[in-house]
Specification:
Blueprint (H helix, E strand, L loop, with lengths): L2 H9 L8 H18 L6 H18 E3 L2 E2 L6
Helix pairs in contact: 1-2, 2-3
């Protein structure tokens, strides 16, 4: 399964933020997505900062499966 699909379908589940193991799995998957899409010459410290920033965004923006904080609720 592609990492981005795994993130959407398996990891960002209801109350995913409450368990350390779930948060860690989302963070690891975020790193894998970055590593797969960037050239090998990428500065590792820069990669770490970018992955951390993206994970922090996911942590604050993703409430659960298909629920993002910036979606309009009808």
């Amino acid at each position: 399964m592609i990492e981005s699909e795994k993130l959407k379908t398996e990891l960002l589940v209801l109350d995913w933020k409450k368990r350390h193991a779930n948060r860690a799995a989302v963070q690891v998957t975020t790193v894998k997505l970055f590593e797969a899409g960037l050239p090998d010459v990428q500065d590792r410290s820069l990669l770490g900062r970018k992955c951390s920033a993206v994970f922090q965004h996911v942590l604050t923006a993703c409430e659960g499966p298909g629920r993002l904080v910036y979606e309009v609720v009808a």
